[in-house]
Structure formats: structure tokens, C-alpha cells
Amino acid sequence: MLTVCVLVCAMMALTRAEALPEEKAEKDDQAAEIDLVARTFQFWCPRGWSWFNRRCFHFVPRPMTWAQAERNCRSMGGSLTSVHSVQEYHIRFRS
User: Fold this and answer.
1) Average pLDDT of the chain, as a whole number
2) Which Gene3D superfamilies does the annotation name (predicted)?
């Protein structure tokens, strides 16, 4: 009897419950809305800026000190970003 109980409990724990049709439709609607908002924000990046991870980035190809770069970013309504790898740099700025 204990074996049957353990097997039933294991089966219940390992079986994924299917969402109710209304819940699934609501989640699909929410995902579509989030996708639409993300795509809309992409078009709000100013010309010459890159869209990455739901944010706009702008690469300024001239040497500056950190303070100069920060002031430059602030003058454009932004702030400096951190780039942690060459791969991330290429993804963000597509150079």
C-alpha cells in the first residue's frame, strides 16, 4: 500500500498540470502585449542609436575622459553604460 501511495505521489509531482484555456489565452495575450511594447520602444531609439535588451545605446567614436563621456551622455539624456566583453560590445554597437 505504501508503494502505491509513493508511486501515485511521484506521478502527481512529475506530471505537469495543463493550464486552463482561459489562463493560457490570458498568458498568450500578455506575452503578445509585452512583445508589442518591446518592438514599439525599439522604434523610439533616435536615429544612429542601437536597440539592445530593451534599451537604446549610442556609440561615440572619439576619445574622452570618463568625466567628459559622462557629461556627453547626460547632454543627450542618457548615462554611461558598462560593457563587459568584446562580444557584448559587438552585440550592442554592431561594429
Assistant:
1) 71
2) Mannose-Binding Protein A, subunit A
